[in-house]
Design goal:
Mean pLDDT: 76
Strand content: 15-25%
Protein name: Elongator complex protein 4
Order of helices and strands: EEHEEHEHEHHHHHEEHEHHEHEHEEEH
Pathway: tRNA modification; 5-methoxycarbonylmethyl-2-thiouridine-tRNA biosynthesis
Subcellular location: Cytoplasm; Nucleus
Keywords: Cytoplasm, Nucleus, tRNA processing
Region (Disordered): 1-28
Radius of gyration: 24 Å
CATH architecture: 3-Layer(aba) Sandwich
């Protein structure tokens, strides 16, 4: 009797298969291998890449829930679009704006080499600053946190190398078009070069056109990404801003929007492309908003910071520098049955010197044991369990 292999999953052989179906790693510019046989592209912001597991899996759908109080989702969309144009990746941008081409003029430019070097040297020089800003009791927690992050990154690299093809073939394909960075540093104060905007295709649905026409344009854009097996592959990017905006809801029903999302996800999954969609969830019914979230492979949301929130200011450190929050609701789990769990669900958004968007873990200020109603009692009495206003020291 012949015994069958006990393995449940068998990885298919090489080749540049499309999407996240496990058909091998893509050998294209701006693509690197990830875990579980998935090819990754950069979001455009190194902090976001680290949060979502190294990058966006090819063939995945990223959805960002907007906040009505602040346009922070536009910052993330700019980085995503600029990174694709820098890597010479075809870009399709759809927006309710009357002229989407004008939005391309707001994309950030690549930072200078000097600024990139100073950024790379930043973590080494910031150790002394951390020692000055954080009490000595918390120094050991910093070292433990750094050790855990280094261990996690090392484990991801080992996992990727174990699944990746031979390094010589992948490096040859990556450097065939010249050396490049997987994630570039951008300067929001400078616009992107006009020569890089040639690979962008823009479309507006402000006139209330039906979603069927927009879906046909997405199909046409994705169909042009296919390459013969012998040629260099490319990855396309689709960016859709405020999909359920009032301009779109005038001629479309909720179920038509869901059908559009389902069709778009199938198109992206079967091709060498990634899609990022932003939508104002507050304009949808709660049940429909939940259905939208289920379609996403990666689900994020942005929130604004209130100007005069004294309670929040007392809880968080560097409250004056925070411009918003980024919440991680769902991460992609392709070619695996184990769900991906983020290290932290909430991150703060900060703009450094008006030129760089950074994301940091939410850090709470140390709790004052003498604050509140127990301000008259000592910290020792609180630890021992005696009420602060007890008439006797034996009264518990």
């Amino acid at each position: 009797m012949e015994m069958k292999s006990g393995r449940s999953f068998v990885r298919k052989g090489g080749g540049g298969g499309g999407g996240g179906g496990g058909g091998g790693y893509l050998q294209a510019k701006g693509v690197r291998p990830g875990s579980h046989g998935v090819s990754l592209v950069s979001f455009g912001l190194d902090d976001v890449d680290q949060i979502i597991g190294g990058g966006i899996p090819v063939g995945s759908l990223v959805m960002i829930m907007e906040d009505n109080e602040a346009p922070h989702h536009m910052l993330l969309l700019r980085y995503f679009m600029a990174q694709g144009l820098v890597h010479s990746q075809p870009l399709f941008f759809a927006s309710p704006l009357p002229s989407p081409q004008a939005f391309l003029g707001t994309l950030p430019a690549i930072a200078s080499v000097r600024e990139s070097k100073s950024r790379s040297m930043g973590p080494k020089d910031s150790s002394g600053e951390d020692e000055l800003r954080i009490a000595w009791q918390y120094r050991r927690y910093l070292s433990e946190q750094k050790a855990l992050e280094e261990r996690r990154l090392r484990q991801q690299e080992l996992t990727a190398s174990s699944w990746a093809p031979s390094s010589s073939s992948f490096n040859h394909a990556s450097t065939a078009g010249g050396s490049y960075e997987f994630c570039n540093d951008f300067d929001m104060r400078k616009p992107l070069e006009r020569s890089l905007l040639i690979g962008a295709k823009c479309e507006s649905f402000a006139s209330g056109a039906h979603l069927g026409g927009l879906l046909d344009q997405c199909k046409d854009f994705v169909s042009k990404l296919a390459r013969p097996p012998g040629e260099t592959q490319t990855v396309g990017r689709l960016a859709l801003q405020s999909l359920c905006a009032p301009q779109c809801m005038q001629t479309c029903t909720d179920w038509e929007l869901l059908a559009f999302l389902q069709a778009l996800k199938g198109i992206v999954r079967a091709s060498n492309s990634v899609a990022v969609i932003t939508f104002p969830a507050s304009l949808l019914r709660p049940t429909m908003a939940i259905r939208w979230q289920h379609f996403a492979d990666i689900l994020l949301s942005v929130e604004a910071v209130l100007d005069e929130d004294k309670e929040m200011a007392g809880m968080l450190t560097d409250y004056q520098e925070i411009v918003g929050f980024l919440r991680v609701h769902k991460l992609a789990s392709m070619n695996t049955q184990v769900p991906s769990v983020p290290d932290a669900n909430v991150h703060t958004m900060k703009v450094v010197r008006r030129k760089k968007l950074t994301l940091e873990r939410l850090q709470f200020a140390p709790v004052d044991a003498t604050s509140g109603d127990s301000g008259s009692g000592s910290a020792a009495s609180l630890l021992c369990g005696q009420p602060a206003n007890a008439p006797s020291k034996y009264d518990f």
